[in-house]
Fold each of these.
Amino acid sequence: MLIEKDYDLHQVLSVVQHEIHRAAMDRKHPFRYVALGTSNDTIAMRYVVLRKVEKDFKLVLYTDHRSGKVDQIRSNPKGQLLFYHPQKKVQVIVSGIITFHNTDGVAEKHWQYVQGEARKAYCSVQAPGTPIDRPEEAYEWDSQMNSEHFAVLHFEPTSIEVLQLRGLEHLRAIFEKTDKWKGTWVVP
Ligand SMILES: Cc1cc2nc3c(=O)[nH]c(=O)nc-3n(C[C@H](O)[C@H](O)[C@H](O)COP(=O)(O)O)c2cc1C
């Protein structure tokens, strides 16, 4: 369990944020892979890797700027991140605003953390989502392996909701930026 019934709301928020911080540093943490939801005229969800947690709890994700999610974020920057920890039985939904960085100082800084073969994930010759006749057609990468297509997504939370499963007495709390993150318990 991550959240206990006798925790105050301040403690709940800080425990949740701490656990998400840990996930960005621990490759085996269940929060490391997180479902990112975006929407414009349709809803789209996909898993991404939580790469870093920066100042003011800004969450950092990496992608290829040619991918569908970037098109969606361009037309609607609102998104959600959905985490679940099966051992601690806790779900966290973070809603927020996403900004993306490509070929700028932020992207260049993070590109230095992507080393060697890992860079291939952002250097395919054909853009992600391009229809192909055979899988092999996708396995061609830019010879220079530069940061041209690499994008950093900055996810700035506007609300954080936590649901702790515990038998028949679940715990649920919601924290809003507009409420200065004070938070409130809600019926699960
Ligand atoms: C466990 C897992 C982790 C993933 N991590 C990333 C990631 O960090 N960044 C990314 O762009 N895609 C990642 N993907 C691939 C996306 O889920 C998705 O298939 C791809 O980015 C295209 O999505 P889009 O068309 O909605 O942009 C991951 C997939 C899985 C299954």
Note: The chain has three helices and nine strands.
Amino acid sequence: MQISTNYNIKNDELKGKIILVTGANRGFGRAITLDLAKAGATVIMLGRDLGALEVVYDEVVDAGFAQPILYPLDLEGATPEHYQQLQEELSDQFGALDGLIHNAGILGTMMPIEQYDIKLWHSVMQINLNAAFMLTRALISVLNKAVAARVLFLSSSVGRSAKAYWGAYGVSKFALEGLSKTLAEELEATNISVNSLDPGSMRTEMLRAAYPAKNTDKIPLPESKSPAIVYLFTDDSKGINGEKLSLF
Ligand SMILES: NC(=O)c1ccc[n+]([C@@H]2O[C@H](COP(=O)([O-])OP(=O)(O)OC[C@H]3O[C@@H](n4cnc5c(N)ncnc54)[C@H](OP(=O)(O)O)[C@@H]3O)[C@@H](O)[C@H]2O)c1
């Protein structure tokens, strides 16, 4: 299913909504954070670098948008206990969680499977897939308490159609697509909707790492795509569930 990036964010349309974004400190996560906060949502900004999270926090507050909450956590080292603690803190502070956006990820390396570094493979799987599984698993109970909660997994074209040398990254995105669909089926009769999204190319550090020799000047900035994410958390997108989304 394709959705438009051409969405006009209305002030306060997400007022009172609590939405957690992983990898909120730069790239697409930063753009998503700014736009969700612009729409009035309280964004729980999860990231491993507190200083970098604080920079975006200041940007949000200086713009006059809804004040976010910082949640420093390294998804590579996080254990089930860390996710349990997050669940308890969310439950105590807000009672319910309206949205969960699995945006954080690492590229790993572009390499034939035969030569792929095994330690790096595990790191990519831990951050891109296992962390998303553990985080979701821990937070279903607080998502269940929201009137209409949404979970979004950031995928990629190489997680829908295999491409040589994308290694652990592509495989982790295929697995995320499976996780998204399985979860959507399991939660079909609940208030929680679950989708995956391939955002297409965006001019971020990840893109530059994937295509070091490419001139990326004409590739769209993440800010041009983040309004579509706001749309996915508004009432206007009600009923979108179990979809593999992409943007136009
Ligand atoms: N850019 C594209 O063209 C493109 C295309 C298709 C899909 N996507 C997907 O879109 C999402 C965002 O991509 P992006 O381009 O914005 O990537 P990016 O610029 O590389 O940003 C990745 C984010 O993930 C965070 N992260 C990485 N490892 C982490 C860890 N161990 N714990 C916590 N946070 C961690 C990074 O934090 P640090 O600053 O601490 O490293 C950063 O905030 C990803 O899921 C990516 O796969 C991107």
Note: The mean pLDDT is 98.
